[in-house]
Write a structure and sequence with these properties.
about 350 residues, alpha/beta, 9 helices, 15 strands
Protein backbone atom coordinates (compact mmCIF):
# COMPACT_ATOMS: atom_id res chain seq x y z
CA UNK A 1 0.00 0.00 0.00
CA UNK A 2 1.17 3.61 -0.55
CA UNK A 3 3.20 5.10 2.28
CA UNK A 4 4.99 1.97 3.32
CA UNK A 5 7.89 -0.08 2.01
CA UNK A 6 6.55 -2.60 -0.42
CA UNK A 7 7.88 -6.08 -0.27
CA UNK A 8 7.64 -8.58 -3.01
CA UNK A 9 4.85 -10.93 -2.33
CA UNK A 10 3.98 -14.25 -3.78
CA UNK A 11 0.25 -14.27 -4.31
CA UNK A 12 -2.12 -16.94 -5.39
CA UNK A 13 -5.64 -17.44 -5.32
CA UNK A 14 -7.08 -20.64 -4.79
CA UNK A 15 -9.64 -22.93 -6.05
CA UNK A 16 -10.46 -24.44 -9.31
CA UNK A 17 -13.94 -24.64 -10.57
CA UNK A 18 -16.02 -26.87 -12.69
CA UNK A 19 -14.40 -26.69 -16.09
CA UNK A 20 -15.68 -24.10 -18.52
CA UNK A 21 -15.52 -25.10 -22.16
CA UNK A 22 -12.88 -23.04 -23.86
CA UNK A 23 -14.81 -22.69 -27.07
CA UNK A 24 -18.11 -21.76 -25.48
CA UNK A 25 -19.28 -18.26 -26.24
CA UNK A 26 -21.69 -16.79 -23.73
CA UNK A 27 -24.46 -14.59 -25.12
CA UNK A 28 -25.35 -11.76 -22.79
CA UNK A 29 -29.06 -12.24 -23.32
CA UNK A 30 -28.72 -15.80 -22.04
CA UNK A 31 -27.70 -14.52 -18.63
CA UNK A 32 -31.12 -13.45 -17.48
CA UNK A 33 -29.79 -11.33 -14.64
CA UNK A 34 -26.80 -9.86 -16.44
CA UNK A 35 -28.34 -7.85 -19.22
CA UNK A 36 -29.18 -4.18 -19.71
CA UNK A 37 -30.09 -3.24 -16.20
CA UNK A 38 -28.37 0.06 -15.53
CA UNK A 39 -26.59 -1.45 -12.54
CA UNK A 40 -22.82 -1.76 -12.63
CA UNK A 41 -22.50 0.32 -15.78
CA UNK A 42 -19.14 0.08 -17.44
CA UNK A 43 -19.33 3.36 -19.26
CA UNK A 44 -17.55 1.78 -22.20
CA UNK A 45 -17.49 3.65 -25.46
CA UNK A 46 -15.41 1.27 -27.52
CA UNK A 47 -18.36 -0.39 -29.21
CA UNK A 48 -16.91 -3.74 -28.14
CA UNK A 49 -13.79 -3.30 -30.26
CA UNK A 50 -10.24 -2.19 -29.57
CA UNK A 51 -7.23 -3.48 -27.70
CA UNK A 52 -7.60 -4.85 -24.17
CA UNK A 53 -4.81 -4.74 -21.61
CA UNK A 54 -4.44 -7.64 -19.18
CA UNK A 55 -2.46 -7.04 -15.99
CA UNK A 56 -1.28 -9.91 -13.79
CA UNK A 57 -0.35 -9.60 -10.11
CA UNK A 58 2.63 -11.97 -10.33
CA UNK A 59 3.98 -15.00 -12.15
CA UNK A 60 5.78 -16.82 -9.34
CA UNK A 61 2.72 -18.91 -8.44
CA UNK A 62 1.56 -21.93 -10.46
CA UNK A 63 -1.98 -20.57 -10.21
CA UNK A 64 -1.12 -17.31 -11.94
CA UNK A 65 1.08 -19.08 -14.44
CA UNK A 66 -1.96 -21.15 -15.43
CA UNK A 67 -4.20 -18.08 -15.59
CA UNK A 68 -1.63 -16.39 -17.81
CA UNK A 69 -1.67 -19.39 -20.15
CA UNK A 70 -5.47 -19.32 -20.32
CA UNK A 71 -5.72 -15.60 -21.17
CA UNK A 72 -4.87 -15.73 -24.90
CA UNK A 73 -7.00 -18.84 -25.41
CA UNK A 74 -10.04 -17.31 -23.72
CA UNK A 75 -9.51 -13.94 -25.41
CA UNK A 76 -9.64 -15.68 -28.78
CA UNK A 77 -12.76 -17.70 -27.89
CA UNK A 78 -14.55 -14.57 -26.63
CA UNK A 79 -13.49 -12.42 -29.59
CA UNK A 80 -11.31 -10.05 -27.55
CA UNK A 81 -8.18 -8.43 -28.97
CA UNK A 82 -5.96 -8.80 -25.91
CA UNK A 83 -2.45 -7.41 -25.73
CA UNK A 84 0.40 -9.43 -24.27
CA UNK A 85 -0.08 -9.71 -20.51
CA UNK A 86 1.83 -7.43 -18.14
CA UNK A 87 3.25 -8.76 -14.85
CA UNK A 88 3.19 -6.33 -11.90
CA UNK A 89 5.61 -8.59 -10.04
CA UNK A 90 3.90 -8.46 -6.63
CA UNK A 91 4.28 -4.66 -6.41
CA UNK A 92 1.05 -2.61 -5.97
CA UNK A 93 2.81 0.61 -6.98
CA UNK A 94 4.11 -1.03 -10.14
CA UNK A 95 0.59 -2.20 -10.89
CA UNK A 96 -0.67 1.40 -10.95
CA UNK A 97 2.19 2.27 -13.30
CA UNK A 98 1.27 -0.70 -15.50
CA UNK A 99 -2.33 0.48 -15.69
CA UNK A 100 -1.21 3.97 -16.69
CA UNK A 101 1.14 2.55 -19.33
CA UNK A 102 -1.67 0.48 -20.84
CA UNK A 103 -3.98 3.50 -20.90
CA UNK A 104 -1.30 5.55 -22.64
CA UNK A 105 -1.16 2.86 -25.32
CA UNK A 106 -4.81 3.56 -26.05
CA UNK A 107 -6.44 0.38 -24.78
CA UNK A 108 -10.24 0.37 -24.82
CA UNK A 109 -10.57 -2.03 -21.88
CA UNK A 110 -8.57 -3.43 -18.97
CA UNK A 111 -8.68 -6.75 -17.14
CA UNK A 112 -6.74 -6.42 -13.89
CA UNK A 113 -6.03 -8.79 -10.99
CA UNK A 114 -5.46 -6.31 -8.14
CA UNK A 115 -2.64 -6.89 -5.68
CA UNK A 116 -4.01 -4.50 -3.06
CA UNK A 117 -7.73 -3.86 -2.63
CA UNK A 118 -7.17 -0.26 -1.51
CA UNK A 119 -4.18 0.79 -3.61
CA UNK A 120 -5.85 -0.27 -6.87
CA UNK A 121 -8.27 2.66 -6.58
CA UNK A 122 -5.67 5.03 -8.06
CA UNK A 123 -5.46 2.93 -11.21
CA UNK A 124 -9.23 2.56 -11.47
CA UNK A 125 -9.61 6.32 -11.23
CA UNK A 126 -7.12 6.77 -14.07
CA UNK A 127 -9.14 4.39 -16.25
CA UNK A 128 -12.43 6.08 -15.39
CA UNK A 129 -11.09 9.50 -16.33
CA UNK A 130 -10.21 8.11 -19.77
CA UNK A 131 -13.55 6.34 -20.16
CA UNK A 132 -11.93 2.90 -20.21
CA UNK A 133 -13.94 0.11 -18.52
CA UNK A 134 -12.19 -2.26 -16.13
CA UNK A 135 -12.94 -5.82 -15.05
CA UNK A 136 -11.25 -6.97 -11.83
CA UNK A 137 -10.25 -10.62 -11.54
CA UNK A 138 -9.70 -12.58 -8.31
CA UNK A 139 -9.62 -9.57 -5.98
CA UNK A 140 -12.35 -7.00 -5.43
CA UNK A 141 -11.31 -3.35 -4.97
CA UNK A 142 -12.37 -1.50 -1.85
CA UNK A 143 -13.29 1.54 -3.95
CA UNK A 144 -13.26 2.55 -7.57
CA UNK A 145 -15.32 1.82 -10.66
CA UNK A 146 -15.30 -1.60 -12.27
CA UNK A 147 -17.78 -3.18 -14.65
CA UNK A 148 -17.57 -6.49 -12.80
CA UNK A 149 -15.43 -8.43 -10.37
CA UNK A 150 -14.81 -12.01 -11.54
CA UNK A 151 -14.06 -13.95 -8.42
CA UNK A 152 -15.01 -16.99 -6.40
CA UNK A 153 -16.62 -16.65 -2.97
CA UNK A 154 -13.57 -16.32 -0.72
CA UNK A 155 -15.67 -16.48 2.44
CA UNK A 156 -16.71 -19.96 1.28
CA UNK A 157 -13.01 -20.87 0.97
CA UNK A 158 -12.44 -20.26 4.64
CA UNK A 159 -15.67 -21.96 5.65
CA UNK A 160 -14.97 -25.08 3.55
CA UNK A 161 -11.50 -25.37 5.07
CA UNK A 162 -12.97 -24.94 8.55
CA UNK A 163 -15.62 -27.61 8.02
CA UNK A 164 -13.14 -30.09 6.59
CA UNK A 165 -10.72 -29.66 9.48
CA UNK A 166 -13.57 -29.66 11.98
CA UNK A 167 -14.83 -32.97 10.61
CA UNK A 168 -11.38 -34.61 10.77
CA UNK A 169 -9.82 -33.03 13.88
CA UNK A 170 -11.99 -33.41 16.95
CA UNK A 171 -9.92 -31.17 19.22
CA UNK A 172 -6.54 -29.49 19.50
CA UNK A 173 -4.51 -26.85 17.70
CA UNK A 174 -4.90 -25.93 14.05
CA UNK A 175 -2.98 -23.34 12.07
CA UNK A 176 -4.14 -21.03 9.35
CA UNK A 177 -1.38 -19.67 7.13
CA UNK A 178 -2.99 -16.43 6.04
CA UNK A 179 -2.67 -14.32 2.94
CA UNK A 180 -2.07 -10.60 2.80
CA UNK A 181 -4.68 -8.74 4.83
CA UNK A 182 -4.28 -5.75 2.48
CA UNK A 183 -6.18 -7.95 0.02
CA UNK A 184 -9.88 -8.64 0.48
CA UNK A 185 -9.09 -12.29 -0.29
CA UNK A 186 -6.79 -12.59 2.69
CA UNK A 187 -9.31 -10.85 4.92
CA UNK A 188 -12.28 -12.90 3.74
CA UNK A 189 -10.57 -16.26 4.10
CA UNK A 190 -9.02 -15.46 7.47
CA UNK A 191 -12.15 -14.11 9.11
CA UNK A 192 -14.39 -16.82 7.64
CA UNK A 193 -12.13 -19.60 8.93
CA UNK A 194 -11.72 -17.97 12.34
CA UNK A 195 -15.45 -17.30 12.79
CA UNK A 196 -16.48 -20.76 11.59
CA UNK A 197 -14.14 -22.53 14.01
CA UNK A 198 -15.32 -20.39 16.91
CA UNK A 199 -18.97 -21.02 16.12
CA UNK A 200 -18.97 -24.67 15.07
CA UNK A 201 -15.80 -26.29 16.44
CA UNK A 202 -15.04 -24.73 19.83
CA UNK A 203 -12.68 -27.57 20.77
CA UNK A 204 -10.24 -26.38 18.12
CA UNK A 205 -7.70 -23.68 18.93
CA UNK A 206 -6.66 -21.54 15.96
CA UNK A 207 -3.06 -20.34 15.66
CA UNK A 208 -2.34 -17.85 12.89
CA UNK A 209 0.58 -17.03 10.61
CA UNK A 210 0.30 -13.71 8.72
CA UNK A 211 2.38 -14.78 5.72
CA UNK A 212 1.30 -12.08 3.20
CA UNK A 213 1.39 -14.56 0.28
CA UNK A 214 5.17 -14.92 0.90
CA UNK A 215 6.57 -18.46 0.77
CA UNK A 216 9.69 -17.64 2.80
CA UNK A 217 7.63 -15.99 5.52
CA UNK A 218 5.30 -18.99 5.64
CA UNK A 219 8.21 -21.42 6.01
CA UNK A 220 10.06 -19.52 8.72
CA UNK A 221 6.99 -18.71 10.81
CA UNK A 222 5.60 -22.23 10.50
CA UNK A 223 8.94 -23.63 11.65
CA UNK A 224 8.95 -21.37 14.69
CA UNK A 225 5.33 -22.19 15.49
CA UNK A 226 5.91 -25.94 15.23
CA UNK A 227 8.89 -25.70 17.61
CA UNK A 228 6.62 -24.16 20.22
CA UNK A 229 3.57 -26.30 19.34
CA UNK A 230 4.65 -29.79 18.23
CA UNK A 231 1.10 -31.01 18.88
CA UNK A 232 -0.45 -29.25 15.85
CA UNK A 233 -3.32 -31.33 14.44
CA UNK A 234 -4.30 -29.40 11.31
CA UNK A 235 -3.18 -26.70 8.86
CA UNK A 236 -5.18 -24.43 6.57
CA UNK A 237 -3.07 -22.92 3.76
CA UNK A 238 -4.83 -20.00 2.12
CA UNK A 239 -2.78 -20.31 -1.08
CA UNK A 240 -1.34 -23.61 -2.22
CA UNK A 241 0.53 -21.94 -5.03
CA UNK A 242 2.90 -20.23 -2.61
CA UNK A 243 2.44 -22.18 0.64
CA UNK A 244 2.34 -25.84 -0.44
CA UNK A 245 6.05 -26.43 -1.06
CA UNK A 246 7.36 -24.54 2.00
CA UNK A 247 4.78 -26.17 4.27
CA UNK A 248 5.63 -29.69 3.14
CA UNK A 249 9.36 -28.96 3.29
CA UNK A 250 9.07 -27.56 6.81
CA UNK A 251 7.07 -30.54 8.03
CA UNK A 252 9.50 -32.96 6.39
CA UNK A 253 12.53 -31.27 7.96
CA UNK A 254 10.98 -31.78 11.39
CA UNK A 255 9.94 -35.37 10.78
CA UNK A 256 6.28 -34.33 10.92
CA UNK A 257 5.21 -35.08 7.35
CA UNK A 258 3.09 -38.19 7.81
CA UNK A 259 0.78 -39.43 5.06
CA UNK A 260 -2.96 -39.77 5.56
CA UNK A 261 -3.71 -42.85 7.62
CA UNK A 262 -0.38 -42.80 9.44
CA UNK A 263 -0.19 -42.03 13.12
CA UNK A 264 0.66 -38.36 13.62
CA UNK A 265 -0.69 -37.23 10.25
CA UNK A 266 -1.45 -33.51 10.25
CA UNK A 267 -4.66 -32.80 8.34
CA UNK A 268 -3.97 -30.14 5.70
CA UNK A 269 -6.47 -28.17 3.63
CA UNK A 270 -5.39 -25.75 0.93
CA UNK A 271 -6.79 -23.27 -1.60
CA UNK A 272 -6.04 -23.03 -5.34
CA UNK A 273 -6.59 -26.31 -7.18
CA UNK A 274 -3.19 -26.43 -8.87
CA UNK A 275 -1.77 -29.74 -10.18
CA UNK A 276 0.84 -29.81 -7.39
CA UNK A 277 -1.92 -29.85 -4.77
CA UNK A 278 -3.70 -32.66 -6.58
CA UNK A 279 -0.50 -34.70 -6.60
CA UNK A 280 -0.06 -34.05 -2.87
CA UNK A 281 -3.61 -35.24 -2.25
CA UNK A 282 -2.96 -38.42 -4.22
CA UNK A 283 0.20 -39.04 -2.18
CA UNK A 284 -1.67 -38.43 1.10
CA UNK A 285 0.54 -35.46 2.00
CA UNK A 286 -2.41 -33.08 2.14
CA UNK A 287 -6.07 -33.92 2.41
CA UNK A 288 -8.07 -31.36 0.46
CA UNK A 289 -8.03 -28.12 -1.48
CA UNK A 290 -10.61 -25.67 -2.75
CA UNK A 291 -10.24 -25.40 -6.51
CA UNK A 292 -10.03 -21.77 -7.63
CA UNK A 293 -11.09 -21.48 -11.28
CA UNK A 294 -8.09 -20.15 -13.23
CA UNK A 295 -9.78 -21.08 -16.51
CA UNK A 296 -13.08 -19.43 -15.66
CA UNK A 297 -11.31 -16.33 -14.33
CA UNK A 298 -9.72 -15.87 -17.76
CA UNK A 299 -12.89 -16.73 -19.69
CA UNK A 300 -15.28 -14.47 -17.83
CA UNK A 301 -12.74 -11.70 -17.47
CA UNK A 302 -12.75 -11.58 -21.27
CA UNK A 303 -16.51 -12.02 -21.54
CA UNK A 304 -17.30 -9.15 -19.19
CA UNK A 305 -14.73 -6.73 -20.61
CA UNK A 306 -16.15 -7.23 -24.09
CA UNK A 307 -19.67 -6.62 -22.81
CA UNK A 308 -18.50 -3.56 -20.86
CA UNK A 309 -16.80 -2.11 -23.94
CA UNK A 310 -20.14 -2.46 -25.70
CA UNK A 311 -21.72 -0.39 -22.93
CA UNK A 312 -23.74 -3.26 -21.49
CA UNK A 313 -24.59 -3.39 -17.81
CA UNK A 314 -25.44 -6.05 -15.25
CA UNK A 315 -27.48 -6.70 -12.13
CA UNK A 316 -27.44 -9.18 -9.22
CA UNK A 317 -28.87 -12.64 -9.70
CA UNK A 318 -28.09 -16.12 -11.03
CA UNK A 319 -26.23 -16.55 -14.30
CA UNK A 320 -26.37 -19.34 -16.85
CA UNK A 321 -22.86 -20.52 -15.95
CA UNK A 322 -23.57 -21.88 -12.45
CA UNK A 323 -22.64 -18.70 -10.62
CA UNK A 324 -24.37 -15.78 -8.94
CA UNK A 325 -23.80 -12.06 -9.37
CA UNK A 326 -23.93 -10.28 -6.02
CA UNK A 327 -23.70 -6.63 -5.04
CA UNK A 328 -20.91 -6.02 -2.54
CA UNK A 329 -21.24 -3.62 0.37
CA UNK A 330 -19.43 -0.94 -1.64
CA UNK A 331 -21.94 -1.26 -4.49
CA UNK A 332 -19.59 -3.14 -6.84
CA UNK A 333 -20.97 -6.18 -8.65
CA UNK A 334 -19.19 -9.51 -8.37
CA UNK A 335 -19.78 -12.70 -10.35
CA UNK A 336 -19.04 -15.40 -7.78
CA UNK A 337 -17.86 -18.43 -9.72
CA UNK A 338 -18.10 -21.95 -8.28
CA UNK A 339 -15.12 -23.41 -6.47
CA UNK A 340 -15.46 -27.06 -5.40
CA UNK A 341 -13.73 -28.85 -2.57
CA UNK A 342 -11.30 -31.46 -3.89
CA UNK A 343 -10.39 -34.54 -1.85
CA UNK A 344 -9.05 -38.03 -2.63
CA UNK A 345 -12.61 -38.95 -3.66
CA UNK A 346 -12.77 -36.55 -6.62
CA UNK A 347 -9.16 -35.51 -7.25
CA UNK A 348 -9.06 -37.34 -10.58
CA UNK A 349 -12.18 -35.63 -11.94
CA UNK A 350 -11.27 -34.59 -15.51
CA UNK A 351 -13.51 -31.52 -15.23
CA UNK A 352 -11.20 -29.91 -12.70
CA UNK A 353 -8.92 -27.40 -14.44
CA UNK A 354 -5.95 -28.63 -12.42
CA UNK A 355 -6.22 -31.95 -14.24
CA UNK A 356 -6.10 -30.31 -17.67
CA UNK A 357 -2.79 -28.46 -17.21
CA UNK A 358 0.17 -30.10 -18.88
Amino acid sequence: MPGRTLRKRNRSRIIGATAVAVGASLALAACGSTKDTGSGSAGGGGGGTGKVGVILPLLTSPFWQSYNDYVPKMAKSEGVDALKTVNSNSDPSQQITDINNELNQGVKGLVVAPLDSAAIEAGLDQAERKGVPVVAVDVAPDKGKVAMVVRADNVAYGEKACDYLGAHVTSGKVVQIMGDLASVNGRDRSEAFRSCVKKKYPKLKVLEIPAKWESDTAASQLGTLLNANPDIKGIYMQAGGVYLAPTLQTLKSKGMLKTAGQSGHIVIVSNDGIPQEFDAIRKGQIDATVSQPADAYAKYGMYYIKAAMEGKTFKPGPTDHDSTIVKLSNGILEDQLPAPLVTKDNVDDPKLWGNTVK
